[in-house]
Amino acid sequence: MDDPFRRPSFGSALFYKDAFAALDFLEKAFGFERTMVITDQDGNLGHSEMRFGDSYLMVGGEWIDYVASPLATGGRNTQSIHVHLESGIEAHFARAKAAGAVVVRDLEDQFYGDRTYSVKDPEGHVWSFGQTVAKVTREDAEKASGLKIEGWV
């Protein structure tokens, strides 16, 4: 059995006014899996974690004054989350839209070889998803974009 407390080196946390609704949405729209939900005696969310592939996300409410949903900041974001898919980007995009995600950037091929899209969840967090669909060299990416690229992996 896998160790439920083993985590990748990096994860993220997002804050929502309605964290329980967010958990439901993230499962339905993006295919995240709920792996831990801790509630207090009154049913309030204390902590939750979700997994997608080899990554994890903590989802919480606005439990202290220095965390906020985009709904509390006029819809502004200070970050976005990017998720890399191994396959199925078109079906994933359709699933997200069907669940109510608001399209920010339509599904399109990028100069660096990925097909990507961006959406907002019901509280305004920006999510992007991508799948590598072509192997592109740094030189080809520079030529296609007109940009100078350092550190191409």
Q: Outline, from the CA principal axes? A: globular
CATH fold-level assignment of the largest domain: Signal recognition particle alu RNA binding heterodimer, srp9/1
- At CATH level 2, the architecture of the largest domain is 2-Layer Sandwich
The residue ranges in which pLDDT falls below 50 over 5 or more consecutive positions are: none
Top CATH class of the largest domain: Alpha Beta
What's the helical proportion of residues?
Answer: 10-25%
Commentary on this structure:
- Helices cover 20% and strands 36% of the residues.
- It is built from three helices and eight strands; from the N terminus they run βαββββαβββα.
- The strands form two sheets. It has a four-stranded mixed sheet, covered by helices on one side. A four-stranded mixed sheet has the order 5-8-7-6, with helices on one face.
- The longest helix is centred in the first third of the chain and has 12 residues.
- Pfam families: Glyoxalase.
Key phrases:
single chain; alpha/beta; 2,3-Dihydroxybiphenyl 1,2-Dioxygenase, domain 1; Signal recognition particle alu RNA binding heterodimer, srp9/1; 2 domains; four-stranded mixed sheet; 3 helices; VOC_core; dioxygenase; Glyoxalase/bleomycin resistance/extradiol dioxygenase family protein; dioxygenase activity
